Amino acid sequence: MIPGDQDPLQQNFTETLPTEMSVRIFSELDVRSLCRASLTCRHWNDIIEGSDQLWRSHCHTVLAICQREVDGERLAGCSWKVTLVRNYRKGCVKRRWLKGRYSNIRSADDIPPNSMCPLDVETWGEILEAELDR
Length: 134
Hints:
- The protein has 134 residues and is mostly helical.
- 57% of the residues lie in helices and 0% in strands.
- Helix 5 packs parallel to helix 7 and helix 6 runs antiparallel to helix 7 (80-98).
- The termini are far apart.
């Protein structure tokens, strides 16, 4: 090996492949794995964070609250990753409310942190209906 050359077995594949190929490889990961991969090294993070395509493909698979909200966030200029994270959080809040996790709350002061977020009217209607059924 020539001095200064890196052993091919030690090279990071993202440094040897065109970025488009690395994005294609990363696109096979689920959201959790994608987030973990972005923590691996700066180069991987740059590719993953810089590729809206990676986040877009997952945005519609995380049980987004409402397509209208996704569209609104995109029109407001939010990246697909921001849209994905916001809708994932909203989905978690919605599921907790629908499961009755907060049914025994008697005042606004008793509402735990991270249990509220802006939701559309239809979602709050579903939550109210589920509470009335309980």
